[in-house]
Amino acid sequence: MLDYSAGAIYHEVRRRRDLRIKEVKGDLHQSTISHLEHDQSDMTLRTMVKILRPTFMSAEEFCRLIDNGSETSTAIFKQIAHYYDSTDLAGLYDLLASYKEQNILTTPNKMVILMIQSCIDELSQHETLFSKEDCDFVQDYLLRPGRWFSFEYIVFANLAFSMPAKINLRISKKMFHAYQQFHLPSYDELIVNALYNLSISFLEQDDPSSAIQFLSFLDLKKLDHHVLYMRHHVTFLKLIIQFKLNPLDVKNANELRTFLEATKLIDDVLFEKNIDWIRSLKINPKTILK
């Protein structure tokens, strides 16, 4: 039977990588590592991160192993994305019901519930804007003093569709300030997602000027090259905004047509989603694909 204690896992990794205690201990006493590996003492997280470095195991991987491979708290975001991308309303309703049943109503959990509800409202074509009470709850949380971490960017990116422009503008100012004051490299992709969703939100409210303003802040260089899905979406959005602003621009129209034709060759499902969204903007796709 596998031992998922911190000491046992660290011992296994250290031995697997042919590392002696003196090669990982740094300025610690050798007995400190020995006591950890025999589960005779605990260790601060800061010290644990320090002795993990020589093993080339990340703190994230180590914590997942200690947690016996159970789902991380952020796994719910992948579940929401899966049901939303596959337009599975029944799956989202089941997810909402089970999440409410299995979790106490803390502030983070309420944010997750609102994210699921936002997806349901959009897919079922109900009123997509939150009530004043829910909008106040979200903006009070996101505007409070303090740093933003990954959760705050994820919340804003996913709830921007369900809040009015005035509130989104207010929160976006806070987001920019928080990002400039402090961010980890992993936040780059999160702020790109937020800016992309804000652009869509303004475009769907028939405000292409604000949409393109948010896109101008969006730096694709912040995305890893493997994140092609988001790169596709951003390029598509830029072309659509230009087409909406000036449908007589032949060069842009040709680029948009070429882009859609290439998308159809690569992924029929994604092509159909693009076409459906074009129709939702009251644009006849035939005027582009002619």
Molecular structure report:
This protein has 3 domains: 4-64, 434 Repressor (Amino-terminal Domain), CATH 1.10.260; 75-123, no CATH class; 124-285, Serine Threonine Protein Phosphatase 5, Tetratricopeptide repeat (Alpha Horseshoe), CATH 1.25.40.400. The termini are far apart. The chain has 290 residues and is mainly alpha-helical. 22% of the residues are buried. The protein has helices at 6-16, 21-24, 30-37, 45-52, 59-66, 75-85, 89-102, 107-123, 132-143, 150-159, 165-181, 187-204, 208-216, 228-245, 250-266, 268-280, 286-289. Helix 6 runs parallel beside helix 8 (107-123). The radius of gyration is 24 Å and the shape is elongated. The protein is built from 17 helices and no strands. The mean pLDDT is 89.
Strand content: under 5%
**Radius of gyration over C-alpha positions, nearest whole angstrom:** 24 Å
Q: Which fold name corresponds to the CATH topology of the largest domain?
A: Serine Threonine Protein Phosphatase 5, Tetratricopeptide repeat
CATH domain class of the largest domain: Mainly Alpha
Shape: elongated
Largest sheet: none
Average predicted local confidence, pLDDT: 89
Low-confidence parts, pLDDT < 50 over ≥5 residues? none
* Structural class computed from helices and strand pairing: mainly alpha
| Total beta strands | 0
